[in-house]
Amino acid sequence: MFFTLTLDPYTGDDFLARLRRKDEATLQQLMEDYLPQVYRAARGTGLSVQDAEDAAQSTFVTFMEKITDFEGRSHIRTWLFGILYRKISEVRRAVQREDLAEDIDGVMEDRFKTNGFWASPPRATDQKVFDQDVRDNLDDCLDGVASEQRLAFVLREVEELDSKEICEAMNVSRSNLGVLLYRGRNKLRECLEKRSITG
């Protein structure tokens, strides 16, 4: 049996050189490969179809404008998601869709007794979602999750980026990412439990 080693076409000095000279074929392939992911991530954060399309388009416009700034120290996908993150923030500020602040003390008081034990032990939230009832309700429940938490959740659970890529894309520390994921998963769990959907 023979195995073919497939190299990532978006890494290495040759790719960086083609990118810097704005090689048309390279840019076309990159857009074909990553535009659907960028758009899907934008929609996953709760943006409307139009706002998600605008954010995705704006991401690639900025990418083309800043292309010479890319040094290849991170994967091009990470760089694109970093731009998308800023575009989503701009869209949210423009439409004043939500207040990102959340009281961590309130979350802790709701979750824990004064002795430090869980008030209501959590159900597993890290498992992949296969249950049809969960899938039917997940989008509705995601609407109640703050945008940074929602983006972290979508990048991790839907796009399956690793923690390092998400931290770079969102410009957050690993511990901050943990807090975002914890809060987002708690919100989702609460919403799904209220709908009698259990994991």
What are the key terms here?
mainly alpha; elongated; 9 helices; 199 residues
What does this structure look like?
By secondary structure, the chain is mostly helical. 63% of the residues lie in helices and 0% in strands. Helix 7 crosses helix 9. The longest helix has 21 residues, at 24-44. The protein is elongated. The chain starts with 12 loop residues before the first helix and ends in a 5-residue tail after the last helix. 24% of the residues are buried.
- Order of helix and strand elements from N to C terminus: HHHHHHHHH
Largest sheet: none
Oligomeric status of the shown chains?
Answer: single chain
Low-confidence parts lasting 5 or more residues at pLDDT below 50? 1-6, 97-103, 125-130
Mean pLDDT: 78
Distance between the termini: 41 Å
* Rg measurement, Å: 19 Å
Structural class: mainly alpha
Strand content: under 5%
State the helical fraction: 55-70%
User: What is the overall silhouette?
Assistant: elongated
Query: What is the β-strand count?
Result: 0
Secondary structure layout:
Layout: H1 13-20, H2 24-44, H3 49-65, H4 76-95, H5 104-111, H6 132-142, H7 147-158, H8 163-170, H9 174-194
Helix pairs in contact: 2-3, 3-4, 4-8, 6-9, 7-9
Provide a compact summary of the structure:
The chain has 199 residues and is mainly α. Helix content is 63%, strand content 0%. The longest helix has 21 residues, at 24-44.
